[in-house]
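REVIEWER CHECKLIST
Item 1: Sequence provided? yes
Item 2: Single chain? yes
Item 3: Sequence as submitted:
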Amino acid sequence: MKEEEGNTALHLAAKNGHSEAVEILLKHWDEINDLNQNGETPFYLSVEGGNEKCAELLLEAGSNIDVLTHNNSNALQAAIQNGYQSLVTFLIDKNIDLVPKPEQKNSPLHLAVISNHLLIVKKLLEANHDINFLNHRQETPLHLAADVGNVEMVEVLLKAGCDLKITDRHGKTALAVASRSNYALIVDMIIKAERRYAMEQAHLGHSDGWSDSDLSFKQDHSTQTKQLRSSLWNLAYNHLKPQEWKILALFWKFTDEQIKAIEEQWTGKKSYKEHGHRMLLIWLHGTLLAHQNPVRQIFKDLVEAGFQHLAEKIRTESSTDMESRKCEIS
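Item 4: Structure as written out by the authors:
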Protein backbone atom coordinates (compact mmCIF):
# COMPACT_ATOMS: atom_id res chain seq x y z
CA MET A 1 0.00 0.00 0.00
CA LYS A 2 1.26 3.46 -0.97
CA GLU A 3 0.37 6.97 0.12
CA GLU A 4 -0.29 9.76 -2.41
CA GLU A 5 3.42 10.43 -3.12
CA GLY A 6 3.97 6.77 -3.82
CA ASN A 7 5.75 6.02 -0.56
CA THR A 8 5.35 2.61 1.02
CA ALA A 9 5.60 1.94 4.74
CA LEU A 10 9.22 0.99 4.15
CA HIS A 11 9.89 4.33 2.42
CA LEU A 12 8.43 6.24 5.35
CA ALA A 13 10.21 4.20 8.02
CA ALA A 14 13.54 4.65 6.22
CA LYS A 15 12.97 8.36 5.60
CA ASN A 16 12.20 9.05 9.26
CA GLY A 17 14.98 6.91 10.71
CA HIS A 18 12.80 4.25 12.33
CA SER A 19 15.38 1.46 12.15
CA GLU A 20 13.39 -0.99 14.26
CA ALA A 21 10.38 -0.60 11.95
CA VAL A 22 12.63 -1.03 8.93
CA GLU A 23 14.04 -4.23 10.42
CA ILE A 24 10.54 -5.65 11.01
CA LEU A 25 9.24 -4.60 7.58
CA LEU A 26 12.21 -6.16 5.78
CA LYS A 27 11.20 -9.58 7.09
CA HIS A 28 7.98 -9.36 5.08
CA TRP A 29 9.01 -7.14 2.15
CA ASP A 30 9.78 -8.33 -1.34
CA GLU A 31 10.14 -5.07 -3.30
CA ILE A 32 12.83 -3.24 -1.33
CA ASN A 33 13.80 -1.23 -4.43
CA ASP A 34 10.25 -0.01 -5.00
CA LEU A 35 10.14 3.58 -6.31
CA ASN A 36 7.92 6.42 -5.16
CA GLN A 37 6.67 9.13 -7.54
CA ASN A 38 10.09 10.84 -7.50
CA GLY A 39 11.87 7.62 -8.36
CA GLU A 40 13.29 7.31 -4.85
CA THR A 41 13.91 3.96 -3.15
CA PRO A 42 13.64 3.46 0.62
CA PHE A 43 17.45 3.24 0.64
CA TYR A 44 17.77 6.62 -1.08
CA LEU A 45 15.37 8.23 1.41
CA SER A 46 17.28 6.73 4.35
CA VAL A 47 20.48 8.38 3.12
CA GLU A 48 18.78 11.66 2.27
CA GLY A 49 17.40 11.72 5.81
CA GLY A 50 20.80 11.03 7.32
CA ASN A 51 19.72 7.69 8.76
CA GLU A 52 22.81 5.49 8.55
CA LYS A 53 21.39 2.57 10.52
CA CYS A 54 18.39 2.31 8.19
CA ALA A 55 20.67 2.59 5.16
CA GLU A 56 22.82 -0.24 6.49
CA LEU A 57 19.82 -2.49 7.08
CA LEU A 58 18.43 -1.83 3.61
CA LEU A 59 21.77 -2.40 1.93
CA GLU A 60 22.25 -5.69 3.74
CA ALA A 61 18.78 -6.72 2.53
CA GLY A 62 19.79 -6.15 -1.09
CA SER A 63 18.91 -2.51 -1.87
CA ASN A 64 20.41 -1.06 -5.05
CA ILE A 65 23.13 1.36 -3.92
CA ASP A 66 23.54 3.08 -7.30
CA VAL A 67 19.93 3.62 -8.45
CA LEU A 68 19.12 7.11 -9.82
CA THR A 69 16.00 9.08 -8.99
CA HIS A 70 13.89 10.80 -11.64
CA ASN A 71 16.03 13.91 -11.00
CA ASN A 72 19.18 11.89 -11.71
CA SER A 73 20.30 11.99 -8.09
CA ASN A 74 21.71 9.03 -6.22
CA ALA A 75 22.41 8.22 -2.57
CA LEU A 76 25.98 9.57 -2.66
CA GLN A 77 24.82 12.85 -4.16
CA ALA A 78 22.18 13.18 -1.42
CA ALA A 79 24.74 12.49 1.30
CA ILE A 80 27.20 15.01 -0.15
CA GLN A 81 24.70 17.82 -0.64
CA ASN A 82 23.45 17.40 2.93
CA GLY A 83 26.97 17.27 4.35
CA TYR A 84 26.61 13.79 5.84
CA GLN A 85 30.30 12.95 6.11
CA SER A 86 29.82 9.64 7.93
CA LEU A 87 27.30 8.49 5.33
CA VAL A 88 29.66 9.47 2.51
CA THR A 89 32.32 7.32 4.18
CA PHE A 90 29.79 4.50 4.61
CA LEU A 91 28.77 4.60 0.95
CA ILE A 92 32.37 4.71 -0.26
CA ASP A 93 33.19 1.73 1.97
CA LYS A 94 30.25 -0.10 0.36
CA ASN A 95 31.78 0.56 -3.07
CA ILE A 96 29.21 3.00 -4.40
CA ASP A 97 30.15 4.07 -7.92
CA LEU A 98 32.17 7.32 -7.83
CA VAL A 99 31.88 7.78 -11.59
CA PRO A 100 28.72 9.73 -12.44
CA LYS A 101 26.27 8.43 -15.00
CA PRO A 102 26.10 10.30 -18.35
CA GLU A 103 22.83 11.98 -17.33
CA GLN A 104 24.37 13.46 -14.16
CA LYS A 105 25.80 16.95 -14.64
CA ASN A 106 28.43 16.86 -11.89
CA SER A 107 30.65 14.25 -10.30
CA PRO A 108 30.56 13.64 -6.52
CA LEU A 109 33.70 15.77 -6.18
CA HIS A 110 32.12 18.66 -8.10
CA LEU A 111 29.10 18.48 -5.80
CA ALA A 112 31.27 18.49 -2.67
CA VAL A 113 33.09 21.59 -3.93
CA ILE A 114 29.82 23.31 -4.83
CA SER A 115 28.38 22.44 -1.40
CA ASN A 116 31.56 23.68 0.33
CA HIS A 117 32.14 20.43 2.24
CA LEU A 118 35.92 20.37 2.60
CA LEU A 119 36.12 17.17 4.66
CA ILE A 120 34.00 15.33 2.12
CA VAL A 121 36.27 16.56 -0.66
CA LYS A 122 39.22 15.09 1.23
CA LYS A 123 37.35 11.82 1.77
CA LEU A 124 36.55 11.52 -1.94
CA LEU A 125 40.17 12.20 -2.88
CA GLU A 126 41.31 9.55 -0.39
CA ALA A 127 38.95 7.16 -2.20
CA ASN A 128 40.78 7.92 -5.47
CA HIS A 129 37.97 9.95 -7.02
CA ASP A 130 39.19 11.35 -10.34
CA ILE A 131 40.33 14.86 -9.39
CA ASN A 132 40.28 15.99 -13.02
CA PHE A 133 36.80 14.72 -13.92
CA LEU A 134 34.95 17.14 -16.20
CA ASN A 135 31.34 18.13 -15.54
CA HIS A 136 28.71 19.03 -18.15
CA ARG A 137 30.43 22.39 -18.72
CA GLN A 138 33.86 20.80 -19.11
CA GLU A 139 34.95 22.19 -15.74
CA THR A 140 37.20 20.43 -13.25
CA PRO A 141 36.50 20.73 -9.51
CA LEU A 142 39.37 23.26 -9.41
CA HIS A 143 37.56 25.45 -11.95
CA LEU A 144 34.57 25.58 -9.60
CA ALA A 145 36.63 26.26 -6.48
CA ALA A 146 38.55 29.03 -8.26
CA ASP A 147 35.37 30.59 -9.61
CA VAL A 148 33.86 31.05 -6.14
CA GLY A 149 37.12 32.05 -4.46
CA ASN A 150 37.32 29.17 -2.00
CA VAL A 151 40.93 29.36 -0.76
CA GLU A 152 40.83 26.24 1.45
CA MET A 153 39.23 24.16 -1.28
CA VAL A 154 41.75 25.34 -3.87
CA GLU A 155 44.58 24.51 -1.45
CA VAL A 156 43.37 20.91 -1.01
CA LEU A 157 42.92 20.38 -4.75
CA LEU A 158 46.32 21.87 -5.59
CA LYS A 159 48.09 19.72 -3.02
CA ALA A 160 46.30 16.64 -4.38
CA GLY A 161 47.94 17.22 -7.75
CA CYS A 162 45.16 18.35 -10.08
CA ASP A 163 45.90 19.09 -13.73
CA LEU A 164 46.27 22.86 -14.07
CA LYS A 165 46.33 22.88 -17.87
CA ILE A 166 42.76 21.63 -18.43
CA THR A 167 40.48 24.19 -20.09
CA ASP A 168 36.71 24.47 -19.78
CA ARG A 169 34.31 24.77 -22.70
CA HIS A 170 35.26 28.45 -23.02
CA GLY A 171 38.95 27.57 -23.29
CA LYS A 172 39.80 28.89 -19.82
CA THR A 173 42.15 27.26 -17.35
CA ALA A 174 41.44 27.47 -13.61
CA LEU A 175 44.03 30.27 -13.46
CA ALA A 176 42.11 32.26 -16.07
CA VAL A 177 38.86 31.66 -14.19
CA ALA A 178 40.34 32.92 -10.91
CA SER A 179 41.86 35.90 -12.72
CA ARG A 180 38.53 36.80 -14.35
CA SER A 181 36.81 36.58 -10.97
CA ASN A 182 39.42 38.89 -9.40
CA TYR A 183 40.53 36.42 -6.73
CA ALA A 184 44.14 37.59 -6.43
CA LEU A 185 44.99 35.18 -3.61
CA ILE A 186 43.85 32.19 -5.66
CA VAL A 187 45.58 33.48 -8.79
CA ASP A 188 48.84 33.56 -6.85
CA MET A 189 48.20 30.10 -5.34
CA ILE A 190 47.66 28.53 -8.75
CA ILE A 191 50.77 30.21 -10.17
CA LYS A 192 52.81 28.88 -7.22
CA ALA A 193 51.50 25.40 -7.97
CA GLU A 194 52.18 25.74 -11.70
CA ARG A 195 55.75 26.80 -11.02
CA ARG A 196 56.18 23.98 -8.51
CA TYR A 197 54.92 21.47 -11.09
CA ALA A 198 57.26 22.90 -13.73
CA MET A 199 60.23 22.67 -11.37
CA GLU A 200 59.47 19.05 -10.43
CA GLN A 201 58.87 18.01 -14.02
CA ALA A 202 62.16 19.59 -15.05
CA HIS A 203 64.03 17.61 -12.40
CA LEU A 204 62.00 14.40 -12.14
CA GLY A 205 60.05 14.24 -15.37
CA HIS A 206 56.70 13.93 -13.57
CA SER A 207 54.61 15.24 -10.68
CA ASP A 208 51.80 13.36 -8.96
CA GLY A 209 50.83 15.71 -6.16
CA TRP A 210 52.49 16.35 -2.86
CA SER A 211 52.26 14.60 0.49
CA ASP A 212 54.52 17.05 2.33
CA SER A 213 52.39 18.27 5.24
CA ASP A 214 54.39 21.52 5.41
CA LEU A 215 53.64 22.43 1.81
CA SER A 216 51.21 25.27 1.32
CA PHE A 217 50.26 27.49 -1.57
CA LYS A 218 48.45 30.00 0.61
CA GLN A 219 49.74 33.44 1.56
CA ASP A 220 52.83 33.27 3.76
CA HIS A 221 52.39 34.86 7.19
CA SER A 222 55.25 33.01 8.93
CA THR A 223 57.60 34.76 11.33
CA GLN A 224 60.58 33.05 9.64
CA THR A 225 60.12 35.02 6.44
CA LYS A 226 58.77 38.26 7.90
CA GLN A 227 61.94 40.35 7.45
CA LEU A 228 62.57 39.01 3.97
CA ARG A 229 58.98 39.68 2.92
CA SER A 230 59.39 43.23 4.18
CA SER A 231 62.50 43.64 2.01
CA LEU A 232 60.63 42.34 -1.02
CA TRP A 233 57.77 44.76 -0.35
CA ASN A 234 60.28 47.60 -0.19
CA LEU A 235 61.86 46.45 -3.43
CA ALA A 236 58.52 46.35 -5.24
CA TYR A 237 57.03 49.55 -3.87
CA ASN A 238 60.09 51.80 -3.64
CA HIS A 239 62.65 50.62 -6.18
CA LEU A 240 61.15 48.72 -9.12
CA LYS A 241 60.08 50.98 -11.97
CA PRO A 242 57.09 50.29 -14.26
CA GLN A 243 57.66 47.20 -16.44
CA GLU A 244 60.77 46.14 -14.47
CA TRP A 245 58.76 43.56 -12.53
CA LYS A 246 57.90 41.94 -15.86
CA ILE A 247 61.58 41.77 -16.81
CA LEU A 248 62.25 39.94 -13.56
CA ALA A 249 59.20 37.72 -14.05
CA LEU A 250 60.42 36.64 -17.49
CA PHE A 251 63.94 36.08 -16.09
CA TRP A 252 62.37 33.76 -13.50
CA LYS A 253 60.41 31.97 -16.24
CA PHE A 254 56.92 33.18 -15.37
CA THR A 255 54.72 32.37 -18.37
CA ASP A 256 52.84 34.98 -20.37
CA GLU A 257 49.56 33.63 -18.96
CA GLN A 258 50.87 33.94 -15.39
CA ILE A 259 52.03 37.52 -15.94
CA LYS A 260 48.70 38.39 -17.54
CA ALA A 261 46.80 36.82 -14.63
CA ILE A 262 48.78 38.85 -12.06
CA GLU A 263 48.26 42.01 -14.07
CA GLU A 264 44.52 41.52 -14.34
CA GLN A 265 44.03 42.36 -10.65
CA TRP A 266 44.57 46.00 -9.66
CA THR A 267 44.59 48.79 -12.23
CA GLY A 268 45.91 52.32 -12.28
CA LYS A 269 49.23 54.13 -12.68
CA LYS A 270 50.79 52.56 -9.59
CA SER A 271 49.33 49.08 -9.91
CA TYR A 272 52.71 47.79 -11.13
CA LYS A 273 53.93 48.06 -7.53
CA GLU A 274 51.37 45.53 -6.30
CA HIS A 275 51.95 43.32 -9.34
CA GLY A 276 55.69 43.30 -8.67
CA HIS A 277 55.16 42.57 -4.98
CA ARG A 278 52.97 39.56 -5.71
CA MET A 279 55.43 38.28 -8.29
CA LEU A 280 58.28 38.54 -5.78
CA LEU A 281 56.31 36.61 -3.14
CA ILE A 282 55.53 33.87 -5.67
CA TRP A 283 59.24 33.71 -6.51
CA LEU A 284 60.05 33.50 -2.79
CA HIS A 285 57.66 30.57 -2.35
CA GLY A 286 59.43 28.58 -5.06
CA THR A 287 62.88 29.49 -3.76
CA LEU A 288 62.05 28.27 -0.26
CA LEU A 289 60.53 25.03 -1.58
CA ALA A 290 63.74 24.48 -3.55
CA HIS A 291 65.67 24.88 -0.26
CA GLN A 292 67.68 27.78 -1.63
CA ASN A 293 68.92 30.75 0.40
CA PRO A 294 66.53 33.47 -0.79
CA VAL A 295 68.77 36.43 0.12
CA ARG A 296 71.76 35.08 -1.74
CA GLN A 297 69.55 33.93 -4.61
CA ILE A 298 67.82 37.26 -5.19
CA PHE A 299 71.15 39.11 -5.09
CA LYS A 300 72.55 36.74 -7.70
CA ASP A 301 69.41 36.89 -9.87
CA LEU A 302 69.14 40.67 -9.75
CA VAL A 303 72.72 40.98 -10.94
CA GLU A 304 72.21 38.45 -13.75
CA ALA A 305 68.95 40.15 -14.81
CA GLY A 306 70.73 43.51 -15.12
CA PHE A 307 69.67 45.11 -11.82
CA GLN A 308 73.06 45.50 -10.12
CA HIS A 309 71.98 48.65 -8.26
CA LEU A 310 68.93 46.90 -6.82
CA ALA A 311 71.04 43.91 -5.81
CA GLU A 312 73.30 46.21 -3.79
CA LYS A 313 70.26 47.76 -2.07
CA ILE A 314 68.96 44.32 -1.12
CA ARG A 315 72.35 43.30 0.26
CA THR A 316 72.62 46.48 2.28
CA GLU A 317 69.13 46.15 3.74
CA SER A 318 69.50 42.45 4.58
CA SER A 319 71.26 41.61 7.82
CA THR A 320 73.76 38.80 8.22
CA ASP A 321 71.21 37.18 10.54
CA MET A 322 68.73 37.00 7.70
CA GLU A 323 71.35 35.44 5.40
CA SER A 324 72.07 32.65 7.82
CA ARG A 325 68.49 32.09 8.93
CA LYS A 326 66.84 28.95 7.65
CA CYS A 327 63.52 29.89 6.11
CA GLU A 328 60.79 27.28 6.00
CA ILE A 329 57.46 27.36 4.21
CA SER A 330 54.47 27.40 6.55
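Item 5: Key structural point noted by reviewer: The CA atoms of residues 288 and 328 lie 6 Å apart.
Item 6: Recommendation: ____
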